[in-house]
Structures are given as C-alpha cells and as structure tokens.
Specification:
382 residues, alpha/beta, 7-stranded mixed sheet, 3-stranded antiparallel sheet, 13 helices, 38% helix, globular, binds pyridoxal-5'-phosphate
Length: 382
Amino acid sequence: MKQVRFPFLDLSDVNRNYIEELHNAAIRVIDSGRYIGGVEVKLFEESLATACQASHAIGVSTGLDALRLILSAWVEMGKLKKNDGVIVPANTFIASVLAIVHAGLRPVFVDPDPETFCISASGIDQACETDSGIKAVMPVHLYGNVAWNQEIRRTITDRELLVIEDTAQAIGAVSTEQGLFGSAHAGALGHAAAFSFYPTKNIGALGDAGAIVTHDTELATTVRQLANYGSDRRYHNIYAGFNCRLDPIQAAMIRAKLPDTLAANSRRFARVVAYENEIRHPLVIRPRISPNVTDQVWHQYVIRVVDNHRDELQQHLADNGVETDIHYPIPPHRQPCFSYLPKQHLPISDQLASEVLSLPVSDTTSVADAAEIARIINRFNP
Ligand SMILES: *Cc1c(COP(=O)(O)O)cnc(C)c1O
C-alpha cells in the first residue's frame, strides 16, 4: 500500500479545532478538586437536555451503558419483563444488541430499509405480527440518518411499543416528523435515548462517555440510581445497580465541543455534497440525500458497491492513499456471541454487510480532498 494521503479520521486533527476550550476545561476540572459528579456534569446535562428539547439528560460512562441502563430501568420499573422482545435493526453496531441481552431481554432483528439503512414501519409491523412478545423497539439512527417518520410513529403508537432511540451516531439531527412528546430532535423522539461520546462520534469526548435523554422523570431518577450502585441515598441501595457515572473531565470536554455541533455537522455535509457531485460510477450506489438537511448528520458517508466489488474498490482506494472503513463487516446476528439466538432470515442486512464502504467525512478531510477521492473512485476499473 502507498503512503496514506487521505486518512479516514485523525482525532488530534479534529480536536485541534477546540484546543483552547479543551485546555481550559481540563484545567477547570483539575483545579476544582471534584472528580466525580459536580458542576461540570450538571452543566453538561443541562446543555444536552436543552439541545434536544427534552426534560432530562443524565451523563453516564458509555453509550452501551446508556442503552443498558434504560432497558434495565424499564425492567426494574415493571414496564418490561425478562425475555420481552425488543426490535432492533440487524445492520446496527453490536452495542445496540448487547444492551438488550445485558438487560435480560430478547433481541428481535429486522432488516432495514436499504435506502435509509434504518428501520421501517413495515419492518416493525411484520415483526409484531409474528412475535406477540415484542414490547419495545430500538430505532438506531445509523450513520446519522434519523430512523423516524410518520409511518413509524403511527405504528409504534398503534402497537403501544416502548421506544428507546440509539442516538450514538446522530447528535444534532432533527426529524421532519414530531416525536411522541412534541420534540422532533433525535434523542427526544421516543421514551428514552442513548447517546455516545466515544472519541470518533460527531461530538467525541477524549475517552469514553455517554448520556441518557428522556422526558420521563421517573425513568430519569431510576437510571441515575442504577448508574450509582442502585443507591437512592448514601449507603442505601434499592437496586443491585452498576457504576456507570460520567467523569467530570469528560463532561467538561464534551461541553467544550457541544456548542459546535451544528457547525461540525454542516462541515460534514459540505464533504458529502462534494462526493454527491463528483462520484459517478456504475458499480457505486451513493447514499440517498434527504430533502430535509437536518434529517441527516452524516456520522458516516456510506456508499454501496454492487456485484461483489466492494473489497476491490477498497483496495483500489488504499492503493491510491485513501483510507476507508466498513460499518459493519459482520452483522450482529452473524457474531459468535449470538449464535444461540434463533436463526433469522435477514437478506438485506447480509447484503449490506458485503456492499457498504465508508468514505472519509470528518474534519480531517477537506472538501477538495473529498472531490479528489471521488475522482479516484471514478477511475476504478475492475
Ligand atoms: C458507538 C455506538 C454505540 C456504543 O457507544 P459506546 O460509547 O462506544 O459504548 C452504540 N450504538 C451505536 C449505533 C454506536 O455507533
């Protein structure tokens, strides 16, 4: 492979945009002497809740823990019981599914709409028709596409499903359709949502971090307690809980970057436009661009390469110094850890796993770089 000319992502490069704010935030926390909880976490939670137009945000350790805490809280609250089915798109990142299993619930995989890479109303309907034990659904806003529309909202309401959004990849996205409680912001559409601030996400911490957003005060209290040893007051434990608290140092890092969410997402979109204008190849399907720009925040720009040419195109790009990635090469239902689950026929997810290719779209890549990468794709001649 030639030298890398176009890296996929360089986190020090991304964080250089915020260097002064990050330095100040670190010094503030060090000087505060408060290294668990405290004002940094509180201010971060207030900013996130406000940004999503939701009543509550709770900072937690990771995105996976955020998902797991919501589902475990619903079990503790009696809203779900062990082995209830939770619908999850089969092309998601493994963490979505791990959380369901960790909470003692049962993942029910559905194929996504290949145009949006997200769950569809008909997918939800079909699953519920064949499985009467389904009580919840996890729309995953994959690649930054909002998994929400009028039909999904209607189906979920008709079937009285609990809705847990996996918003790890979609901070700042806004749906064209209102959520169940008025807000149209991703993360405030359903009953509860999980965010991740893993360093590579659109807004990344400088380590692991996550958050839960909800309109439900009882749920907010329960997840807070579960994340703090199941304790309702000091040395008194009502649940067999976890330690999943958000570090103040990470809260401060995220808070330093949060005001840039909109601008950062529109910088991503500028690269997407360059790809959209330049990529012309008969084997490449470009992702659909929603007419409403806020509907997509482009966590990843994912093309599909048909006729089994994906790996060759990836090699062609590597030979020309372009780093790419695959989200995700092995879907959760094919992972060894889930081989005990009933076999499901998921042809779209299997096909996508063999076709998808993620191109660089972060602050590491300029608009001119994106145009050059597109021209390298156009020269692909298998
Ligand atoms: C990153 C991610 C998670 C998990 O977040 P962590 O903070 O890494 O635990 C969950 N779901 C999706 C879709 C993700 O992209």
